[in-house]
Amino acid sequence: MKKYLIYLMMAATIVTFGACSPEDENEPQTPDIENPEKPDDEGEDMPDDPNQPGDNPDTPGGNSKILVAYFSWGGTTQRMAQEIVRQTGADLFRIEPVVPYPTEYTPCTEVALEEKNNNARPAIAATVENWEDYDTVFIGCPVWWWTTPMIICTFAESYDFEGKTVVPFCTYASTYRDETLARIVELTPDAAHLTGEGLTSGRINEQNISSWLREIGLIE
Description:
Blueprint: H1 2-19, E1 66-70, H2 76-88, E2 91-94, H3 105-117, E3 136-142, H4 150-157, E4 165-171, H5 177-187, E5 192-193, E6 197-199, H6 206-215
Parallel strand pairs: 1-2, 1-3, 3-4, 4-5, 4-6
Helix pairs in contact: 2-6
């Protein structure tokens, strides 16, 4: 009898832990906001830390006809943008709001949703120098509330894209990749467009980005 009770208790324990298993995909419905990520190597620089020493990755090189313009909240989109620049030799422009977004996840989602519902156009802190010199413009962002952050609308409406080629890119947690890429295309109707790319954080690497850039003819 005691053995039977012991087996019964063990079975109940297994069921309880199984119900909390990480394999359970019934996750709460939260927007695809890119999260600040802790590097695998604690000695690695955090992408969005302005206090880290070294070269400023957002300083234009001055000779490229390709521009990578991106908005990044937690650093994920920035990593993708910097890899595109490394492989293409493009100049880099960071789209930064005049009023910074909250650094904590939940407050940021609330501000992002309010901007979306109000069709807001958050002001951008800086402008692209020598805009007319660029033939190809990458525009990148995270997926926020199933689409682009509203600051991407501000950027797209601030410049004349006639005669330019736009290449959209985005980072996302699980869904709405294609919708976000399509939105960037929609925001730049006067431009020609090349096939965009969206990657999750774990897929941002040299190989995946080089394969895409070769497919669209921007590197050999």
